[in-house]
């Protein structure tokens, strides 16, 4: 994949620069690689020299412009976990950032917001541009965890790491497709999964990205209809569940890819039947990026991406690869089958002990979701200072009564694991990629 093991090796902005080939699909039609590169260089000239810049662009094409312009200038893009002004102000203060790149009317008090749309007008090709090269050890982005369980943690990503991961993903998903896949993603580009599977695979994986950021099922259908075949949908279990429930007919898709939360076997099979394509799932983490895949409806075990090696020491899992700067310890509990495959046991903080008995929170949540009439659910350990917790709690979206739900759960669970309180809500507190905002869930339970 790389010519050497040298992390400083320079790597092009594109894996293969073909000026006249499409890079993205925008509202006005396709944008070629040369047109994109011209806009990148024009924006780079307008940006102030600074080590960090915050990329808040929602449109995927605008995000890519800002991301690549920062790369060319040697700046690191900060990718906040949300667009809340307080989050952004705190990040700007910590990293001494004065400028944000935007593509809407977002106003962040005290910060200079540069609208990337204003920097593209009148950009035309006069001479052929040479493709920029970026040092492999340049810190391209600092991504932040969702903060669903506490303060977001920062994770530095070198350019070589992003290039390596996107190349491996393309090898896994795109190698059997004769034409370049046109990628529609429901995940924000600020999320590592969204960055890798929509932006980076367009730069280094041979894909062509759609600039849109659809959320609701009809928006997904519209975005897919706006790009030609063959199509790939990059999404999450939450979006898949909503699409299935909506019954909206989707344009033909070659493959659907899911990540950010566990995909149940039932949802995977329903999606494959409803949309007549295979659904692949990605396992990864913010610390190391995408690591393994599986077709959930047909496989229990996970296959590491080519070149990534899994090891275990004293029950702790580690991964290493040429594109990763260091050996990375994983927080999850895995059962290695060999150096290239494993079974997922649970999240590191997922196993709880109640009355001397142990169970996985994900397992209880899965059993809740398997009940006919339960639309969405999450099970967790409530926070009660000064008390010894002896009960799980659950938030549930359902028209069933608590008694009906409890009666169903007793068929599968020891009574000590039946959630109490079991609170019904109109919708679960999730972020843009479908992850539960645990602090909000805890507050909802406290009100009970």
Q: What's this model, at a glance?
A:
The chain has two domains: 337 residues, 3-Layer(aba) Sandwich (Rossmann fold), CATH 3.40.50; 97 residues, GMP Synthetase, Chain A, domain 3.
Percent range for β-strand residues? 25-35%
Give the helix tally: 11
How many individual β-strands?
Answer: 27
Rg estimate, integer Å: 22 Å
Distance between the termini: 54 Å
Q: What's the CATH topology name of the largest domain?
A: Rossmann fold
Outline the structure in words.
The chain is α/β, with parallel strands linked by helices. It folds into 2 domains: 10-346, ANL, N-terminal domain (Rossmann fold, 3-Layer(aba) Sandwich); 351-447, GMP Synthetase, Chain A, domain 3 (2-Layer Sandwich), CATH 3.30.300.30. Helices cover 28% and strands 28% of the residues. It has 11 helices and 27 strands. The chain has helices at 33-46, 60-73, 85-95, 159-173, 192-204, 217-225, 237-246, 265-275, 361-369, 402-410, 438-447, and strands at residues 10-12, 22-26, 29-32, 52-55, 76-79, 99-102, 112-115, 133-135, 139-144, 154-158, 182-185, 208-210, 231-235, 255-258, 278-285, 289-295, 302-304, 309-313, 316-320, 328-329, 333-338, 341-346, 351-354, 357-360, 374-380, 393-398, 422-424. Strands 3-2-12-11-13-14-15-16-17-22-21 form an 11-stranded mixed β-sheet, sandwiched between helices. A 6-stranded mixed β-sheet has the order 7-6-4-5-9-10, sandwiched between helices. The protein has a 3-stranded antiparallel β-sheet with strand order 18-19-20, with no helix packed on it. Helix 1 (33-46) packs across helix 2, helix 4 (159-173) crosses helix 5 (192-204) and helix 7 (237-246) crosses helix 8 (265-275). The longest helix has 15 residues, at 159-173. The radius of gyration is 22 Å and the shape is globular. The relative contact order is 0.09.
């Amino acid at each position: 994949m790389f010519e050497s093991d040298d992390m400083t090796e320079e790597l092009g902005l594109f894996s293969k620069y073909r000026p006249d080939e499409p890079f993205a699909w925008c509202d006005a039609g396709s944008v070629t690689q040369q047109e994109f590169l011209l806009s990148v260089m024009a924006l780079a000239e307008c940006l102030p020299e600074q080590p960090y810049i915050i990329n808040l662009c929602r449109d995927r094409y605008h995000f890519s412009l800002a991301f690549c312009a920062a790369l060319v200038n040697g700046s690191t893009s900060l990718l906040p976990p949300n667009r809340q002004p307080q989050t952004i102000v705190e990040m700007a203060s910590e990293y001494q950032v004065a400028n944000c790149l935007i593509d809407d009317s977002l106003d962040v008090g005290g910060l200079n917001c540069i609208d990337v749309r204003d920097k593209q007008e009148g950009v035309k090709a006069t001479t052929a541009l040479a493709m920029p090269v970026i040092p492999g050890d340049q810190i391209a982005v600092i991504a932040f965890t969702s903060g669903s369980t506490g303060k977001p943690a920062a994770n530095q990503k070198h350019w070589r790491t992003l290039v390596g991961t996107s190349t491996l993903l393309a090898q896994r998903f795109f190698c059997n497709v004769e034409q370049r896949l046109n990628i529609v993603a429901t995940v924000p580009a600020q999320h590592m999964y969204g960055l890798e599977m929509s932006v980076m695979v367009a730069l280094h994986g041979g894909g062509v990205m759609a600039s849109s950021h659809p959320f609701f099922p009809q928006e997904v259908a519209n975005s897919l209809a706006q790009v030609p075949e063959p199509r790939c949908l990059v999404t999450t279990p939450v979006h898949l569940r909503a699409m299935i429930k909506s019954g909206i007919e989707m344009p033909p898709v070659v493959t659907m890819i899911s990540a950010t939360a566990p995909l149940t076997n039932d949802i995977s099979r329903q999606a494959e039947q409803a949309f007549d394509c295979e659904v692949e799932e990605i396992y990864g983490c913010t610390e190391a990026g995408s690591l393994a895949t599986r077709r959930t409806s047909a496989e229990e075990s996970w296959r590491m991406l080519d070149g990534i090696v899994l090891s275990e020491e004293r029950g702790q899992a580690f991964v290493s690869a040429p594109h990763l700067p260091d050996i990375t310890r994983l927080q999850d509990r895995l059962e290695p089958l060999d150096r290239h495959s494993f079974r997922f046991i649970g999240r590191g903080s997922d196993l709880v002990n109640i009355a001397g008995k142990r169970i996985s929170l994900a397992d209880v949540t899965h059993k809740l979701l398997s009940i006919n009439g339960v639309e969405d659910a999450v099970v967790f350990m409530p926070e009660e200072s000064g008390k010894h917790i002896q009960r799980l709690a659950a938030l549930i979206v359902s028209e069933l009564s608590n008694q009906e739900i409890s009666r169903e759960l007793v068929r599968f669970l020891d009574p000590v694991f039946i959630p109490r309180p079991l609170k019904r809500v109109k919708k679960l507190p999730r972020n843009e990629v479908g992850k539960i905002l645990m602090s909000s869930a805890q507050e909802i339970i406290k009100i009970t």
